[in-house]
Amino acid sequence: MGAFVISRRFNDEYKFVFTSRKGKVIFTSLSYELRFECEEDIERFKRTVDLSKFLKFKGSGGKYFFKLMLDGVHFATSRKYTTELLLQKGIKEIVTYASKAEILDFSSNESIFEDEEVSVEEEVED
């Protein structure tokens, strides 16, 4: 099952990505000024994923991507895919798993994984 991951951009605005079951980013949202706006849009998308439209494009470099439209408004943009088949698999992953995906919030500046200090003596003993 995929996941929605909330994080911060360098300009301190919020964004979220939808990742596949294997952890690859499928699409990235637009920017949000407030974190709760991200959460609200994720929940709205999860409820209405079946009403989404996927506009497919082929870039000048030959790679494929899509723009995700929700209620006629640009909602997110996919990563670049090397083939149209991979693009279609990305869309299928969204349609299949987005409504059940969990939300992970990595937007705080706090360290999620604390660094544990280990002395040299302890390392030698192990």
Helix/strand-derived category reads: alpha+beta
* Residue windows where pLDDT falls under 50 for at least 5 positions: 111-115
**According to CATH, what is the topology of the domain at 3-51 and 84-108?**
PH-domain like
Q: Write down how many β-strands occur, each being a DSSP E stretch of 2 or more residues.
A: 7
Relative helix content: 25-40%
Protein name: DUF1508 domain-containing protein
InterPro entries: YegP-like_sf (IPR036913)
Give a quick summary of the entry.
The chain is of the alpha+beta class and 126 residues long. The chain contains three helices and seven strands. The longest helix has 14 residues, at 35-48.
List the main descriptive attributes of the protein structure presented here.
YegP-like_sf, 7 strands, 27% helix, DUF1508 domain-containing protein, seven-stranded mixed sheet, PH-domain like, alpha+beta, globular
SSE topology:
Blueprint: E1 3-8, E2 14-19, E3 25-29, H1 35-48, E4 53-58, E5 64-70, E6 73-78, H2 84-97, E7 102-105, H3 120-125
Parallel strand pairs: 1-7
Antiparallel strand pairs: 1-2, 2-3, 3-6, 4-5, 5-6
